[in-house]
Each structure stands twice: as structure tokens, then as C-alpha cells.
Automatic annotation (TrEMBL):
Keywords recorded for this protein, A-Z: 4Fe-4S, Iron, Iron-sulfur, Metal-binding
Highest taxon above the source species: Bacteria
InterPro entries according to UniProt: 4Fe4S_Fe-S-bd (IPR017896), Fe-S_Ferredoxin (IPR050572)
Protein's name in the database: Ferredoxin family protein
Protein species of origin: Blastopirellula marina
GO MF, one example: 4 iron, 4 sulfur cluster binding
Residue span, 4Fe-4S ferredoxin-type domain: 213-242, 243-274
PANTHER family: ADENYLYLSULFATE REDUCTASE, BETA SUBUNIT, FERREDOXIN III
Length: 360
């Protein structure tokens, strides 16, 4: 018997008719798939850490799929920050730019850095995150979920003929459950459903979720350098009991401000709702093997403005809006970054300048 798979559909923040229709069509198409259970939650990023949405997701202990209006990386680490952990499941339904960047991830790094994820253990289950912006084709999502279901069921199918004693054949208890099933969608003799088709509904978690704005840390990139906590002056970041960086007070973050993501040397800070893909969690600019300072590619709000300058300006704007004094580069600017412009330009700097001029 195939392993049961939970599919979570995270609704968009707006009531956009096209988005709602795609969500509803996916739910309707998966609802009658054997072995698949469908759950609907509000927008993943907006869920309260102690609300029913997160509590419902935390109750899932097996493999599951999340379909959301977020980049795959953003969805994964948004789940992770609320203690919903699992190994990264590979999905074949991705943005074209992410497919192209897979080759970049295979390049060796110049130096081996210890990432936060290297010191963490993950539960033995897979979490698959699919971005609903990848395609408008309903069937592509249905086919991918069914493929994932087959993938996670493989080991169960191989062992399905063994009972607890290691011998072939079902146990008496298993036979009893088949003879008298307890689920509402059990099929009667003659092939009729116990529960009328119109009565079958997905599990829907209701929550009054308001739009939020806060950073999400990608611990597969984070080296725990603490530059974000030094730079942010709004008390967003903190450390846990083993001195690992975390987003401690997410709602202290100033709405629309992505400044800390621009100073992160590993591009590990994600703002899932930012308009710039690389800040929002896209893998179109991959880390690791690239030989240039990726923070320069995060997009410049003003012409000829460097990433660090943009971060300082954005922070000062938020300080002034909060009734505080601007601090410029006097506070929290890493010495490593402050000294960049004082060095004589080399070929690498010329390459970065050339890329900046392309405005990509």
C-alpha cells in the first residue's frame, strides 16, 4: 500500500482570482488521489508562530509537500524557523533560472566554511517545497505531487509483503482493518464510496493572518558570523542557548527594509516578499562556487549605489522614521566591508562594475 503523503496548499496573500483558482483546482485534483491528504493554510510567511496554522504543520511528522507562493528556499527556511524541520526534498518543478544554476552549485568552493546546518541533525523525513509561480499549468503540479508520492512510497512498497515477524503475508490485525476500515472514504462492495463525493473536503486551517515582514535565515549558507546582529539596530536578531544567530523578534523588523540582507557575506538572509528575487530567496544567483561578491548583485535601489551603501541608507531611513538619529557607517558596518573601497581595483572589481552596469 502506498505511503500516505500530506500536501499543504499555502494560499496567496491577496484574493487574486487567478491565484485562487489555481489553488482550488490543485486541491480538487488531489483530493481523490489515493494516499494523499490535502491541507489548506493561509500564506505560510504570515502565520503566527503560536497560531493554529503553524501548530497544524508541526503536527505533521512524516514526509510532506508544501505548495506556496514563495521561492522554494524561502518556503523551506520559513518552515524551519518555526521548528518544522526535515531534509530537503528535490522537486523537478522549478524556475528555469534555478535549473541553470544547478551547475554552479557543483563547482568546488575556494575555502571550506562551516555552515550552521552542519552542526544540526535533521529528522528522517523529506519536505518538498514547490513555488506556485513556476507554472500556470494545473497538470504539472498534480503530476509532480504524484511523482513525489511514488518516490516516498518506494521503500514502503518494497517492504509491504512483510509483517512484524519478518514473514510474508499480512497479520490478523491488518486483515481486520481491511475488512472493517475506519476511514470515511472507504469503498463499499460494488465500488461505492462510504462518504458521498460532495462531502469529501480538505483539512482547512483557519487563521486571521496579517501581512508580516521579517528576515528568514538560510542556515545552509549562514556561517554564524553575527554581522546581521551588529548591523540591525531594531532588536530583530538574537542568539540561542548555543550562541547561534536567530531571528528573535521578527515583528521588530521595519516593513520594507532589507538592509541586513545586503550586508550578509553569505547571502543567507531572505525577505520572502521582497521584489528582488535574490533577496526573496531565488537561487538564480547561487552561492559557493561563484568567484565574485554576490551581494553586489542584489539589486541597487539607486543608480550607481553599492550594496553596502544601499544597506546603510535603508537603515538610516528606518531610524529616522522611528524617531531616532541616523548613524551612517559609524555603527555595525563590518570592517571587512568598510575597507573594500579603499583597495586598489583589480580585474575582479572591473568584472563586478561591468555586471552592475548591465542592471540585471
Amino acid at each position: 500500500m502506498p505511503k500516505r503523503l500530506t500536501v499543504v496548499v499555502s494560499q496567496g496573500q491577496s484574493n487574486n482570482p487567478a491565484k485562487r483558482k489555481l489553488e482550488e483546482d490543485i486541491v480538487a485534483a488531489l483530493l481523490f488521489e489515493p494516499g494523499i491528504e490535502v491541507t489548506i493554510v493561509p500564506h505560510l510567511y504570515d502565520l503566527k508562530p503560536d497560531g493554529p496554522g503553524i501548530m497544524g504543520l508541526q503536527a505533521i511528522t512524516t514526509d510532506f509537500v508544501v505548495l506556496s507562493w514563495l521561492y522554494e528556499r524561502a518556503a523551506r527556511w520559513t518552515l524551519d524557523r518555526t521548528s518544522i524541520h526535515g531534509k530537503r526534498g528535490t522537486t523537478l518543478l522549478v524556475h528555469e533560472s534555478d535549473e541553470d544554476d544547478d551547475d554552479l552549485l557543483d563547482e568546488p568552493e575556494e575555502e571550506s566554511k562551516l555552515r550552521v546546518i552542519d552542526s544540526r541533525s535533521m529528522p528522517n523525513r523529506m519536505i518538498y517545497c514547490i513555488d506556485l509561480r513556476v507554472s500556470n499549468n494545473l497538470q504539472e503540479y498534480v503530476d509532480e505531487v504524484k511523482r513525489i508520492h511514488r518516490e516516498v512510497s518506494t521503500s514502503v512498497v518494497e517492504l509491504g509483503g512483510l509483517n512484524g515477524n519478518g514473514s510474508a503475508g499480512p497479520t490478523p490485525q491488518q486483515l481486520a482493518r481491511v475488512a472493517q476500515p475506519t476511514n470515511d472514504t472507504a469503498i463499499k462492495e460494488g465500488g461505492e464510496l462510504e462518504k458521498p463525493i460532495e462531502a469529501i473536503e480538505p483539512f482547512r486551517i483557519e487563521e486571521d493572518a496579517k501581512r508580516r515582514w521579517y528576515p528568514v535565515i538560510d542556515y545552509s549558507r549562514c556561517t554564524n558570523c553575527m554581522e546581521c546582529i551588529d548591523f540591525c539596530l531594531f532588536g530583530v536578531y538574537g542568539v540561542d542557548k548555543v550562541e547561534t544567530i536567530l531571528v528573535e523578534m521578527p515583528d521588530n523588523c521595519r516593513k520594507g527594509c532589507p538592509a541586513c540582507s545586503r550586508v550578509c557575506p553569505e547571502n543567507a538572509i531572505i525577505f520572502p516578499q521582497h521584489k528582488t528575487p535574490t533577496i526573496a530567496g531565488s537561487d538564480e544567483v547561487a552561492g559557493g562556487g561563484l568567484k565574485i561578491d554576490l551581494s553586489q548583485l542584489f539589486g541597487k535601489p539607486q543608480e550607481d549605489e553599492k550594496s553596502l551603501d544601499a544597506a546603510v541608507r535603508e537603515r538610516d531611513e528606518q531610524l529616522l522614521l522611528a524617531g531616532r538619529e541616523a548613524v551612517g557607517t559609524a555603527v555595525g558596518v563590518p570592517k571587512r566591508q568598510a575597507e573594500k573601497d579603499s583597495r586598489e581595483k583589480d580585474e575582479l572589481d572591473d568584472l563586478i562594475d561591468a555586471v552592475d552596469e548591465l542592471d540585471i
